[in-house]
Amino acid sequence: MHVTIVGAGLGGLVLARVLHVHGVPVTVHEAEASPSARTQGGMLDIHEHNGQVALRAAGLFDEFRALVLEGHEASRVLAPDGTVLLDEPDDGTGGRPEVQRGELRRMLLDALPDGTVHWGHRVTGVRALGEGRHELTFADGTTETTELLVGADGAWSRIRPLLSDATPEYTGTSFVETYLFDGDTRHPRTAEAVGAGAMLANTPGKGIQAHRESDGRLHTYVALSRPQDWFAAVDFTDPAGAAERIAQEFEGWAPELTALITEGDTDPVLRPLNALPVGHRWDRVPGVTLLGDAAHLSVPNGEGANLAMFDGAELAVAIAAHPGDVEAALRAYEGALFPRSADEAAEAVRDFDLCFGANAPDSLIALLTGQA
Ligand SMILES: Cc1cc2nc3c(=O)[nH]c(=O)nc-3n(C[C@H](O)[C@H](O)[C@H](O)COP(=O)(O)OP(=O)(O)OC[C@H]3O[C@@H](n4cnc5c(N)ncnc54)[C@H](O)[C@@H]3O)c2cc1C
């Protein structure tokens, strides 16, 4: 049994690592040219009940703990005028430690045998050959035949059409991403407003959400519920103009908060939020399955990377538990995946509404304090 994974995100890499732990040979095809081809985004809080379970299954729990940024689990909610509405310091007892996504990915890559990941292998086509076998075509024109194929290739999966006609749809909200470097010395009032961990200043339909990363970097997602046409009219090729236009939507907000938009050290990046239908599932197709965002892309609520890693570990364990019987392994995996993903996707929609719905920020505070 050889497993072929498309996508070296956190989900695909956990699958590869847990398969390796169980002695199952595996190849990962990744579109990006190298591990450092793209910055890997910001902080992830890794949850006890899913992300941490997956890292234990990968035999990498101690290595993960060594990456945790102590103190960064703090969270606070601010009103638009900068008033602190909720302040929960990191007292070391929380179950959601924070790590840099790039460091977690590096840890997983280092735990795989050399040559497992084939970098610069973008899948451009896939077709069924019958009896559970598939042929992958890569951007360089080469092909490969698979015995067991896993689509771990994220939101716009090339593998998903083998199983389902579903495509992600715009949720009505986009994030605009900015970074302020060296916040404590260059932007002390803003750094103070963000605090030691996460800061959320949300109101109905919009918000400024920032996180303190290592080296005092302040990483911000500005949330705006606007149609895609609205964002299309903002010229992101003019970074300063785009930042000004986005900041106009926060007129009257405290300057230490709007500085997170206007004082950015990197160009603002538009990140439209898309989602698959809640409860997305498919009929069993021999020799192929999906995990992570490819299977259940949802609005972000801090679970997506955790769920992708959990899926990866669950699938690997199912494959190892059914030697020589791919279909039994995939039935067992999908039998648990579908209800779990449906519940999680429904919860993501609910959480998103608590964050940005009509009752924000009161509903957000209720969510963070377990009262929702
Ligand atoms: C703005 C934003 C903030 C988020 N914040 C959080 C958070 O705080 N916590 C959290 O848990 N989750 C968060 N998420 C969700 C999280 O990022 C995803 O759920 C998670 O990355 C999914 O992992 P994955 O392995 O399924 O896919 P991905 O991480 O998307 O990895 C897919 C991989 O497949 C590769 N690939 C794609 N197409 C091909 C192809 N054709 N051929 C070969 N390779 C291909 C890609 O290059 C990529 O490396 C956030 C999402 C967004 C949009």
UniProtKB/TrEMBL annotation:
Cellular-component GO terms for this entry: cytoplasm
GO molecular function: FAD binding; monooxygenase activity
First-level EC class: oxidoreductase
Gene3D superfamilies: FAD/NAD(P)-binding domain (3.50.50.60)
Domain annotation FAD-binding: ranges: 2-322
Keyword Disulfide bond carried by entry: no
Residue sites binding NADPH per the record: R38
Binding site for FAD: D45, R101, D293
Subcellular location as annotated: Cytoplasm
Catalytic activity reported: a tetracycline + NADPH + O2 + H(+) = an 11a-hydroxytetracycline + NADP(+) + H2O
Entry keywords, A to Z: Cytoplasm, FAD, Flavoprotein, Monooxygenase, NADP, Nucleotide-binding, Oxidoreductase
Domain of life: Bacteria
Record-linked Pfam families: FAD_binding_3
Names of the cofactor(s): FAD
EC number: 1.14.13.-
A biological process term (GO) from this entry: response to antibiotic
The record's note on its domains: Consists of an N-terminal FAD-binding domain with a Rossman fold and a C-terminal substrate-binding domain.
Protein family according to the UniProt entry: Belongs to the aromatic-ring hydroxylase family. TetX subfamily.
PANTHER family in the record: FAD DEPENDENT OXIDOREDUCTASE DOMAIN-CONTAINING PROTEIN, MONOOXYGENASE ASQM-RELATED
Complex formation: Monomer.
Biological role: An FAD-requiring monooxygenase active on some tetracycline antibiotic derivatives, which leads to their inactivation. Hydroxylates carbon 11a of tetracycline and some analogs.
Protein's recorded name: Flavin-dependent monooxygenase
